Amino acid sequence: MSGPNGDLGMPVEASAEGEDDGFGEAEYAAINSMLDQINSCLDHLEEKNDHLHARLQELLESNRQTRLEFQQQLGEAPSDASP
């Protein structure tokens, strides 16, 4: 039976004691560094998202106030129901 990449399914054996797992300290340090960079980028994106959300909330409130002012100038009864 073939695996997802078309490879034959090979049973995974536990590595014998003292065998190298294929990754050295340098590889783990590089992976750790990349994960730190990804984490930093995600934190930055989250900050930008929070900022945009706050600005959109301000815009929404401003638009509500402007709509109410226009309705009052036209003599209409203000309605808070949004379609």
Automatic annotation (TrEMBL):
InterPro entries: BBLN_eukaryota
Name listed for the protein in its UniProt record: Bublin coiled coil protein
Signal sequence segment: none
GO terms under biological process: apoptotic signaling pathway; bone development; bone resorption; gene expression; intermediate filament bundle assembly; multinuclear osteoclast differentiation
Region entry Disordered, spans: 1-25
Species assigned in the record: Jaculus jaculus
Segments traversing the membrane: none
Source superkingdom: Eukaryota
